[in-house]
Protein 1
Amino acid sequence: MNAKNIKHPTTPLDTPSALQGVKVVEMGQLIAGPFCGKTLGEFGAEVIKIEAPGAGDPLRNWRLIKEGTSVWWQVQSRNKRSVALDLRQKEAQDVARRLIAEADVLVENFRPGTLEGWGMSPAELHAINPGLVILRISGYGQTGPYRDLPGFGVIGEAMGGLRHLTAEPGRVPVRVGVSIGDTLAALHGVIGVMMALYHRKVNGGPGQVIDVALHEAVFNVMESLLPEYSAFGAVREAAGSALPGIAPSNAYPCQDGWVLVAGNGDSIFKRLMTAIDRQDLADAPDLAHNAGRVARVAEIDAAIGDWTHGRSVRTVMEELGKARVPAGKVYTARDIAEDPHYRARDMILTQHTRDGYDVEVPGIVPKLSLTPGTVRASAPHVGDDTDVVLAKLGLTTEQIARLREKGIIQ
């Protein structure tokens, strides 16, 4: 389908965009690099996605497919333009360099050395665009003995220490259910990009390279894991739904589901014990502080579980809400879709796709008061914007047609 025949649904812009005027070339695929491009695009950056002619980004065919395209793609690639270039060919690499020469940011998540093999090392790119910010996301980073090993998000989660903790004690480590390693790397990448752009604008500095490794992004959020080992030789182990060393904080069974209860604040604990009719525990001197509660955590968990298991999730939530005790139902997709709070905060948006159907998608985070994020355009088909983007680069209609005949573009 020709891009000019596609209606691009837009969100009216009542306020300026935080990243208006920032140009991003996204050369990544699947999750880590594209999630970074997605986030930058939601806050106003112009994101030009380069993908291979034909099938394009493999994410287009991941998980559930509607009208020939993954519904995940509709979220991951909104606000982006698609240029289909076969980067294995020199002429395509030349076109990519022309795009990058006009960009503020380049995002890539290939295996280290891929850009260099195409004649696009950071030194070569900075020679044509000194202010370019280059974000490189890879499994193990651009340096070190593991740099050339293939790495996916799940491997980063394992090496970063997360997978060891996500299990019931003595059982097989499990994944958290989403590609959290990739997303954490992407968010660290966004932070790096914003810092580099700030340095360039405010301090007059040149562009720089941001090196994000998947396992390091995971490791960065592992809290006290390493210092506890360094100071005490303590290796933190899997603890199921509990939060080791902090009590009570766990998941408790109800008649029709599970509820998470976080009663680990001193005053909160007293209110929780009163709410479940365990005044003896509320008044116990040794339970007034966390250290004492940790020593008796099994007893406390049993008391809470005894109270919750004879009640419905709704009843537990209502009674703990009255007691001002933090508690939460374990939500499914249906719970999220039906929750009024999600909708009140615009965290569920209806997005019209270029395939002609509407789909509900996640809203935008974070929420900025003066320059909020927006959905300005739906996710593109492969190469939707190739002609328009290349024409803006100065290529003639004849030159574009010749590149298409040679299979260099789509």
Protein 2
Amino acid sequence: MLSNKTIEIVKATAPVLEVKGKEITTNFYKSMFAAHPELLNVFNHANQQKGRQQTALANTVTAAAHYIDRLEVLVPVVKQIAHKHRSLAVKAEHYPIVGEFLLKAIKEVLGDAATEEILEAWGEAYHEIAAIFIQVEKEMYEEAERQENGWKDFKTFKIVKKAKESGNITSFYLAPVDGKKLPSFKPGQYITVRVKINGEEFLQNRQYSLSDVPNDEAFRISVKREDEQTPAGKVSNFLHEAPNGLEVEVSPPAGDFILEEDEKPVYFLAGGVGITPLLSMLKTSVTSQPNRKVTFIHAARNSDVLAFEVEVKEAIKVTKEGKSYLCYSNPTNKDLKLRNFDHEGYVDRAFLEEIVEEKDAHFYVCGPVPFLQTVVNELKQLEVKEENIHYEFFGPAMKLEEATTV
């Protein structure tokens, strides 16, 4: 238990951390990786380059400062992060290293303001918080290994099939090299795929949603080729060029962005490749609860990059009360001629007011950050309760209101 004095000191630093948080975490990662380059085999390099990992950690540290006397408030956040850690094989022995360099970063950024008393208090607080993460993750590792057909950390798989879903999305079917059956998973969960790319010193980890329902033979992930951004997506491009038979490493399924299987109506709102976890949820929902009211909304630029249109329509046919809508923000001339979509433009409040018939429903949202920001905000403006809105970032979780600054 932390002393009252330690709690007071940590809470008093919260305003400073809100201002200096990202500067501290940027310094932290730079120093830690310089001293322990082997940890670059664990972390997602793309999220580091984009600053998303630094922002996510800064948010977590600031939240810890605010709620150090009520750590139970942080349990949902801890569990979400712990899922990602377990999927990346973050271990208990990594936490002392993180603590050492986090305290060094606080001292370096805050200078004389970071007194010995403050650093000692934060050292005690970090030890307490780390113990919670380590225990939660220990239970997750044990559960992943203990489940039927489960395993620990990473296991060798191979690409047994590739299927082009659109102009920029390809599905990859991954099967265990040892020929064993797969564990089940909850719709909406993801796996970590770890690859060795020629010319890269360190292993590359990426987390991809499972885009189909569970089966014994192969996991399906559906990956967007990221060659229009800077830096280009190393792993996505590597996979798109990979031949069948290529071996990769895969972690057991993880994640807490999962389908609530109650009787409430459910709305799925997908932006681009954000359809991947929602498609798994949709196909599971209509099979297990065919009487449940389901509405699926998919937003894409146009038909050239639209994926899974047939799978969505086939799934909707299974349910007795199902509807699907297709939104194109930039339809092609062919699209305009055929009128093969339901709404032109972005998913906005006017469109949602027309489609959403029940406020007391579950809303699952996944897609690019601007899509998440817009849709979640508009749902709140429509007076949908916050606890009924479920969304997931691809990558480290951030606050929606600050995500565009990253």
